[in-house]
Specification:
By secondary structure, this protein is mostly beta strands. It contains 6 helices and 24 strands. A hairpin with a 5-residue loop joins strand 23 and strand 24.
Amino acid sequence: MAQTRHRGRWTLEDRFASAWHYLPVEVPSGASGIRVELEYERAGAVLDLGCIGPGGFRGWSGGARRSFVITADAATPGYLAGELEAGTWLVIVGLHQLSPDGTGYQLSAEVTSRHDGVRPDPVPGPPPPLAHRPPRRELPASSGRRWLAGDLHIHTMHSDGALSVPGVARLVAERGLDFAAITDHNTVSHHAELPAAAARYGITLLPGQEVTTAAGHAGVLGDVGWIDFRRPADDWLTAAEQRGGLMSINHPFGGHVSWTIPMIRRPPLLEVWHWSWLDLRWTVPFAWWLAWDPGAIPVGGSDWHRPGDDAQPGSPTTWVECAGDGPQDVLDGLRAGRTAISASQGGPVLLRREGELIAVGADGMVLAGPTGPVARARGELAAFSGAPGCHRLLDGKGATLALTP
């Protein structure tokens, strides 16, 4: 067993120099496990935690955990199991928030051999299968396609969420959704669990990562591997494109986590509808959308983390018109801009079909176009001329309950 200890004090000057600092740990040949623990003065401070091995990224837990374990066949959620490469490992400490007087810390790393190995804490087993799930909602679709209901922004215990991947999959199915993107912060350790959980609960799970920095968050969708959050945002977009994925700007006007990062190019997706749209009468989301990129494809996400959150999975619901029900089918529909967003899976929906605007379950609601109200919906299914631009369904108080680009 080999131990490494670091201690010191991070200052605001350290944060000015870089948001991320690196503490070396030497791992000898034949090591079977590593355990790292970080302690620091909590008053006015938040430190993030992650790890890079000689072969690259090995995990991130941000401020959600103070310790992690990595072995050949298991790891703390947020970290990648696998053989421990010999050489210098770097523990990443993110200086997310520091006390004005500085923040004292100490970090210990324990590297073990095969006869005295460490193990990560056990994770809960999968919850039981659903006895009954709500019927799928069928909406008018173009020939050969169907509208799938989903949520493009959900977290698990692989970052700062409360439930396991199977637990989230069960909840998503219970909510009547067809798909969900699991977008844990700055890690891809959850990706390996998605196929089995999706099959167990009869839904589609998209691999995702919420690339997370103090200046803004972005959702990268698709099986594209790890996106290095330490790089400029334009590099995130390039990496996503080159690997066949899609990138979204997440909660662009979401309080202290609003998007403030300059970019040369614009990602294809924009999370126009997020739980931080607290009053659906506000037009802030549309103002931001028009100012950032009127051609961006609008999507929605609940940003769900744990039971008791105000926004449950599917609040809002992103609808994608797809040729099939696999992850690639959802990505293809998103890429083509075949999207609509509603406040919930069972509420009013506005969508486009073969040149028409179709309002479903919106009797008495007002159809509004880019310049204001244009018509009233009558009946369970109302069809309108498919004029260009974003259209919305408004209730009697002017709140948006559904939209389509």
